[in-house]
Design a protein that fits this description.
Layout (H helix, E strand, L loop, with lengths): L1 E4 L13 E5 L6 H11 L4 E2 L3 E2 L14 E2 L2 H9 L3 E7 L2 E6 H9 L4 E4 L2 H10 L4 E6 L3 H11 L4 H15 L7 E4 L3 H16 L1
Parallel strand pairs: 2-8, 2-9, 3-8, 4-5, 9-10
Antiparallel strand pairs: 1-10, 4-7, 6-7
Helix pairs in contact: 1-7, 5-6
Amino acid sequence: MTSTDSGRSSPLPFPGGHVFILSAPSGAGKTTLLRAALERLPDLRYSVSYTTRAPRAGEVYGRDYVFISPAEFEDGIRADRWAEWAQVHGNYYGTSAEVLSQALAEGRDVLLDIDVQGARQILKRFSQSVTIFIMPPSLEILEARLRSRGTDRPEAVTLRLRNAREEMAQKEMYRHVIVNDDLPTAVRELVAIIGSYRT
């Protein structure tokens, strides 16, 4: 596991909390790392995304997503309610700007799980956000991970790999990059990065 800094200087300390953005291609281990970080940093708040899709089996309102109607989401677009949003497969997904602003005003640190395009949107509004990109050791290992899950058809794996290449090509926009080739080490690195901004 290796971690690198993009070469940008760290932002000066500022009052209030921090926004931490975690992005990664599918299969890089982002969800596992995110959960581990939240377990080790219990006062770190996780930003739950809003969506218009129906809940899946086992999903809980307010824990996995905040489920709202398309009309309510579109009202939010017109009212500039979303810090970032996208429409994927006919459903809307977004992050509440109000929730982030309130948490920061209260001095709370917030962790976001969003893709590269969402990160770009967040940075336009919350420019001092700390961006962290999770990389797989290689595309070959990423492909092996995706295929071993057995949850996607071959054509879906091909699409995920194509998207992964595009996302990995934009990793330079991130302040920190963690290569997840050893999970315990990657967890320690992620927790250390977040902790370095909170002292």
